[in-house]
Amino acid sequence: MIRSGLKWHLFNFKGKYEVKAVRILGDAGMASPTISDGVLIPWLLLDTSERPDIADFILRHQHTPPGDVVSQWGKLSRFTKNKVSLILCFKNPIELNVLIDFKLPEQGILIERILQANAVFLQAGQEGDRIRDDLNIPKVIIEVPETGFRPHWDFIYKSALVKKYRKKGVSKKEATRMASDHIESIGKLDVFRLK
Asked: How many structural domains are present in the chain?
């Protein structure tokens, strides 16, 4: 089960390997005037060393029409304070579930960018791989609708940033202002689009 806002959603995972979060090895962004109106879309390099089914899915997807995917943002437990999860349930060309955890506040910008773009690129990799090493390696773009998560995310992210600044000795009032400025600066990135 995953919690998004006040609701819990049940997902059918096929085995223990699907419940374990896939690690993000690296990230980048890609913008194209022909995709998503030129908005910058996050590009995640996933550690698929223990999930060859994900690598197989990405490879097969290169030669098939877009498949069905259901996505959901949330937290796997109410005790999870520093992580937000994205669950992707694919129906075609292969049926599989992918769980990606994002650490807060460090990877909050990735979530923010995915929410702004309503999409993410996924690429399979292993320890030591870098996105810049070969930009032509197969990747897949996934539509990630907002699904009502935005108001919850705004609260979660701001709280995580305030906590980070407070640990550095900043007053609560100043930490709140700094968190707001940080989030506002990320929002300004959305103005840049490739035409």
From this structure: 1
CA dihedral over 47, 87, 62, 45, signed as positive or negative: negative
pLDDT, tens digit, for every residue of 45-68?
999 999 999 999 999 887 776 668
| Range scoring the smallest mean pLDDT among 4-18, 28-42, 44-58, 139-153 | 4-18
Domain of 17, in residue numbers? 2-191
Reduce the DSSP state of residue 60 to 3 states and report it: helix
**Whole-angstrom Cα distance, residue 122 to residue 138?**
9
- CA-atom Rg of the chain in angstroms: 17
Looking up tokens 């943002």 gives: 73
Number of other residues whose CB lies within 10 A of the CB of residue 170: 16
Are 119 and 38 a contacting pair, CB within 8 Å? no
Using CB atoms within 10 Å of the CB of residue 127, give its burial: 0 to 12 exposed, 13 to 18 middle, 19+ buried: exposed
37 near 114, Cβ under 8 Å? no
CA 119, distance to chain mean position in Å, is 9
pLDDT tens digit sequence for 133-170: 888 889 999 999 888 899 999 999 999 999 999 999 99
